[in-house]
Amino acid sequence: MRNPKRIPALLLALSLVFCLLAGCGKTEQEAAQPEGETTKYSTDEMTVESNIYTDAVTVAAAPLDVYLEDAPVPMVAPEILMPEASGVAVEKNDKAEIDYSNITDGYVMARFTAATEKRLKVQVAGPTTTYNYDLPAGNWVTYPLSDGNGSYKVMVLENTTGSKYAVVASVSFQVTLKDEFAPFLRPNQYVDYAAAPNTVAKAAELTQGVTDPLAKVEKVYSFVVKSLTYDKEKAQTVKSGYLPVLDTVLAEKKGICFDYAALMAGMLRSQGIPCKLVVGYAGTAYHAWISVWTEASGWVEGAIYFDGTTWQRMDPTFASSGKGSESIMKYIGDGSNYTVKYLY
Fold this sequence. Notes:
Elements: E1 14-16, H1 28-31, E2 44-48, E3 56-59, E4 90-92, E5 96-99, E6 107-112, E7 120-125, E8 130-134, E9 141-144, E10 150-159, E11 164-175, H2 197-206, H3 213-227, E12 229-230, H4 232-237, H5 246-252, E13 254-255, H6 257-270, E14 275-282, E15 285-294, E16 298-300, E17 304-306, E18 311-313, H7 316-321, H8 326-332, E19 338-343
Parallel strand pairs: 2-11, 12-13
Antiparallel strand pairs: 1-15, 2-3, 4-5, 5-6, 6-9, 7-8, 7-10, 10-11, 14-15, 14-19, 15-16, 17-18
């Protein structure tokens, strides 16, 4: 695979809305909230019961997606970097395993091996940010070390009663990444292109004969904007814990903003382009966007689109569904409304 540090200097960030304005997809509590008050998104609270870890941790709920009302020549394929549980460094017991053999490559893997019908989670506490993920029983799942270099603690948690969880397995380690791009090239739970052969094949088809990474970004961007439509029904009914299935999004040609972002991130990563799926806020609404690395500027944050001549600020989800209305353009503006919370 091409070394990311050799990627030319014109790559720019792409952005996709997770939620922009309150209205659709509200919880019952939010629906009852008086007009004019700031919407506060509920989170899944859990308390860990263990002599190892007793602090309360907050699990970010799956973002509720809402719809903005007025947005009516063959070449050698890049090497796809797949995660693996190498077994070199493992913390395990009769219930769970944490494989941290490849932390320099920006990821850790976990699986729950015992039989259970209880909800399972993995917590990845980095130097500055704590991430809480779901863990399906039985299979290895990949979690990025999105916080970069520093000290980490990873725990597998099993629900006991209500919102309380017990620590099943725990390990701490120090991370020094091979490079800053490592966590944002491989598949993970949020950008699972390892399980999406059609998505990978479509990205290869779209970029066939293209050598300029910026041109690859444009090809993928244009395809998603022109092919996908915004799924308003799904936005109003999406459940906590939802994760995009990339090949399903590709086949159905529709989705919520999380789907747009994950599909584009998977396509770009499969082409060797470092790409962050960023979750945060646009104003007070939950939101997701994608940032792409450039050699000249490093990680470029913000929301932009390509108008055929230059890159302009906008949101590709609404380029697809809202045809770039003036109100949307004004709201997104220069990106100052965006606040980063999590990187995947």
